[in-house]
Amino acid sequence: MSTMRDSFQSRIGFILAAAGSAIGLGNIWGFPTQAANNGGGAFVFVYLIVTVLLALPALYAEMYIGNQTQKNPVGALQDACEGVSRNLGKYAGLFGLLGAILMLSFYTIVAGWMLAHALSPLMDLFGFTDAATWLGESSHARNLAFTPVFIILGALIINQGVSKGIERWSSRLMPILFVLLIGLIIYILQQPGASEGVAMYLQPDFSQLRDPMLIISAMGQAFFSLSIGVGGMMVYGSYMKKNANMGQLVLSIGALDTLIAFLAGLLIIPTLFVAQHLGLEVFSGDKLIGGPQLIFSVLPTLFDSMGDIGVYVALVFFSLMSMAALTSTLSSTEVPVAYLVEDKNCSRTKATVLVSLIVLIACMSIVYNFDSLFGLVITWVNTFQLPIMGLFYFIVVGWIWKRGNQLTDQALLASKPSLRLWGNYLRFVCPILLSIVFINVLMAL
Ligand code: PFF
User: Fold this and answer.
1) Which segment of the chain is annotated as a signal peptide (predicted)?
2) Does residue 2 sit within a domain?
3) How far, in Å, is the centroid of ligand 1 from the Cα of 303?
4) Model confidence at 3: pLDDT above 90
């Protein structure tokens, strides 16, 4: 099938779309709470090292495969595995695709909570207090309403295509997100108690470095944050013109993602100390509260107690979260959509509807079996899916690809010594490092 593929229209559009996928709840919620509870600056330090040594190379490998093959992740991995077995590539691609659906199945539920919390202050402002209360309280009915709403929002963008949908919306939403984040940080840092939070965040407690779990947590966080392992970044790479300078692009995406995670730490941790200053309980034992209780109980209570301005702060904060989540779901939705369009001859609209329905069914299965499935799916995706696929990408780029005849001349075999060094780093060092960390994860289970 050789219909023209849609593509990103500019480098900056591509960077914003990929950064949009990377920057999400993982940055604004996951990173700050992990940092706060794992030695503050020491976690930030380890996170940076793991990101540079392993996560960025994995992102490079993922995007590179997409870019060189110019196909959806299933087709891309099939081509890249040509020299060994196309079937291996096909099943690996489908495994990634399943990961994308699983990732969407829990992420969209949480994103729906964010959206409900963003609408709640808006209802308050318009005087619909009952609706505001309903939106602000966790309920089965709210899940049933807001998970589909969020899926539909994503589907509307995906249906418009790569340049007119993903690129256009990411280019609009990411700058807004940045401005809102900076605005919130400036406001929060002026509140009483905030400086204690800044100190806790930035002062490294290096005694925590002895804990091997720190590296494991940092790696899991880095892979999730950079959206590695479900093919989303691969499909984005495939929409960039072939032989684009992937190294530079990956560095820009990594820098933006890390910057926003770092800035989110400057928002969330000081916010917790402002809350403590106002008498709220923000510690559980010696750890800062980090889970859903932080976002959906402590923060709304804090915003409520801020007086008139609180409702606006809540509106901005949860809008920021919703936007971050929305752009993050686009890349994983694009994986199965691109597969259906390219390999199964579906129209884009039909593929989008079908994928949305599948994601909806997956979400509802979790909503109805929340206690048993929600945590399980998250653990599966974060602990297994992402590192396993990361490892596979290294093996494809470093080993399998070389054996194919189709793409050999493209695949990291350039004669420049610097490139050869980089190729050897991806071939030998990355898979070994990642395997060591992964084995430690398994042993820690
Ligand atoms: N990177 C996103 C975040 O930090 O919230 C999560 C994510 C998005 C993971 C897309 C995987 C993915 F394909």
Assistant:
1) none
2) no
3) 27
4) no
233 C-alpha to ligand 1 centroid (Å): 10
Question: Which residue, by CA, sits nearest to atom 11 of ligand 1?
Answer: 227
Atom number in ligand 1 closest to CA 231? 13
HSE toward the beta carbon, residue 176, CA cutoff 13 A? 14
In single-letter form, the type of residue at position 34 comes to Q
Average pLDDT score over residue span 49-62: 97
Comparing CA positions, the residue from 324, 334, 380 lying closest to residue 356 is: 334
Q: Which of 112, 8, 90 is nearest to 359 (CA)?
A: 112
Whether residue 128 is contained in a domain is answered as yes
- For the entire predicted model, the pTM comes to 0.95
Q: Please report, for the domain that includes residue 377, its CATH number.
A: 1.10.4160.10
Residue 25 alpha carbon, nearest atom of ligand 1: 5
Is the pLDDT score of 407 beyond 60? no
Closest residue by Cα to residue 181 from 266, 278, 306: 266
Distance between CA atoms of residues 208 and 214, nearest Å: 7
Q: Separation of 81 CA from ligand 1 center, angstroms? A: 25
Looking at residue 329, what is its pLDDT?
98
For residues 307-333, average pLDDT: 97
Residues with C-beta less than 6 Å from any ligand 1 atom = 21-22, 24-27, 103, 224-225, 227, 230, 232, 328, 331-332
Neighbours of 322 (CB within 10 A): 23
Q: Which domain holds residue 424?
A: 11-444
pLDDT one-digit tens code per residue, 111-146: 999 999 999 999 999 999 999 999 999 999 999 999
Model pLDDT, residue 212: 82
pLDDT in tens, 409-440: 455 555 566 777 888 899 999 999 999 999 98
- Residue 6 placed within a domain: no
The interface predicted TM-score of the complex, written ipTM, equals 0.99
Report the nearest-CA residue for atom 10 of ligand 1: 227
Q: Does residue 423 form part of some domain?
A: yes
Domain count for the chain? 1
Instruction: Provide the pLDDT for residue 37.
Output: 86
Q: What's the rounded mean pLDDT across residues 241-246?
A: 90
Task: Give residues with Cβ within 8 angstroms of 372, minimum separation 6.
Answer: none
